[in-house]
Specification:
Helices cover 33% and strands 20% of the residues. It contains 10 helices and 10 strands. The strands form 2 sheets. Strands 2-3-4-1-5-10-7-6 form an 8-stranded mixed sheet, with helices on both faces. A hairpin with a 4-residue loop joins strand 2 and strand 3. Helix 1 packs parallel to helix 5 and helix 6 runs antiparallel to helix 7. The mean pLDDT is 96.
């Protein structure tokens, strides 16, 4: 008999299925891990979190998208502010430990120039109500279709390029909508020799994986307990309005090492659970991870 967790797992599986089709690095990394006996198969990987990007305009943004995940038992947690990138973000804890956390960011559209605001509203003002309110959230087919469709017209290449000049995040979101921005491989649960981010990054780079080096390849929280790194997004062929095509940044893969909290250092290694490790996120880390789809990083891969 189906239950809410089963349905949620199916929604997450469909998100990951489409994501993997668009991000070649995912299968390459999994193949390398199997070949080097780091994992036996893909199911051995723990997904630390997945991430979405949204536009902060009426009827969209976090206030809209979160309804889906709150319905399925996620709990809204800490707020983060990114002044330079003009973003808000929240993370959501899952109803079961085996499921990934969710990180949803939102462009503060009102903080952009008037021309960029007008361009975004040109596309999103066609929405007169929250499209999530029109979904039967108990119908996982409807939810899946919504997460992989657009609530606004496909932009022109010119509009995409104009937005990118001011906010590469805005350009990414106006075209990619709710496609997964990234999934995150938990490094700390891998076998020894690979279960630190420093060692795993060396493994990746020795096999030709290009890592985001904005702020350093390893982004560290001030407490030293959350370490993150990421690949650089591949370019994907995008079809714009009027039949125009262009290669633009797609999605990427993130890696996280969550260290054991001081008060749990005495617990035997085989008894360590998620609750014993550093929880949440770090704004300074995330700020640099966002740049995995930015031209300065993506063009390093060419």
């Amino acid at each position: 008999m189906y239950n809410r967790i089963t349905e949620l797992s199916e929604i997450l599986q469909e998100l990951m299925k489409r994501y993997k089709e668009r991000v070649p690095d995912v299968q390459k990394i999994i193949r390398l891990m199997v070949e080097h006996n780091i994992i036996q198969n893909e199911s051995d990987i723990e997904n630390d979190h997945i991430a979405f990007r949204t536009l902060g305009v009426p009827h969209l943004g976090v206030a809209s998208l979160e309804k889906i995940f709150l319905h399925y038992g996620y709990e809204k947690r800490d707020y983060y502010f990114f002044p330079e990138k003009k973003l808000n973000a929240w993370w959501f804890s899952p109803p079961e430990e085996k499921l990934p956390r969710i990180f949803i960011s939102e462009l503060r559209v009102g903080d952009l120039s008037s021309s960029a605001q007008q361009l975004i509203h040109h596309y999103t003002d066609s929405l007169t109500s929250d499209p999530v309110d029109n979904l039967d959230l108990n119908n996982i087919t409807q939810v899946d279709q919504y997460l992989h469709s657009s609530s606004w017209d496909i932009p022109t290449l010119k509009d995409y390029q104009m937005l990118a000049l001011e906010s590469e995040y805005a350009a990414w979101a106006i075209y990619n909508r709710y496609y997964l921005n990234h999934f995150t491989l938990s490094v700390h649960n891998l076998k020894k020799r690979y279960n630190t981010l420093e060692a795993f990054n060396q493994f990746l780079e020795s096999n030709g994986i290009v890592l985001n080096d904005s702020g350093g390849k390893i982004k560290r929280s001030p407490d030293g307990l959350l370490l993150q790194s990421s690949t650089v997004a591949e370019k994907v062929e995008a079809s714009f309005a009027n039949g125009e095509k262009a290669m633009i940044p797609g999605s990427y893969v993130e890696f996280a090492e969550r260290k054991i909290l001081l008060q749990f250092q005495h617990i035997p290694e085989n008894e360590i659970l998620r609750i014993h490790r550093r929880e949440g996120f770090e704004a300074a880390n995330a700020d640099r991870i966002f740049e995995s789809t930015y031209a300065a990083q993506v063009n390093r891969k060419i």
